[in-house]
Amino acid sequence: MEIAKAYEGREHSVVKHALLKGYLEKLLFIMGMTGIREIAYVDCFAGPYKDESADIQATSIAISLNILNKVQDALATQNKHITVRAIYVEEKKSSFKRLKDYLDNNCPSGIQAFPIRGDYAEKTDEILRLCGNNSFAFFFVDPLGWTDVGIPRLSKFTEPPEIRIFNHIHVRPLKPLCRKS
Fold this sequence. Notes:
CATH class: Alpha Beta
Strand order of the largest sheet: 4-3-2-5-6
């Protein structure tokens, strides 16, 4: 498997991003076709991490925004007009600044983006308020390293009537298996 230079030193992110790309678009398109009028995407550990490029294209931030925009546009061609909210939570000050700057300059016009600084478990009420009561919400829970994201920390997100899907991915480093391109 060849790995793009943007993933050097964080080869495990290739797998996580491939899963995000392969799953999120299909899921959100299906939900939009079923009559859901609002979609919220929540990245609980947004970063960006170890991607020093200005366009941060090899991050879940850029990948998710591209997918959300693509799904919203595709649904509009089917006369399914949906509200899309993207909520990005980041605790680290320097990463949050890059996140906010990126969203301010690169968020597609049809998507409402909300950067939140802090620990997602301490920002639960704010996150749920931004998701809205009628949205289909997808939570991308992908911590850096071994971070506690157990059920007690996630439990408030599972309370009805909202629909929630969690995607917690932790992939061991794949460096020995990968060649650089």
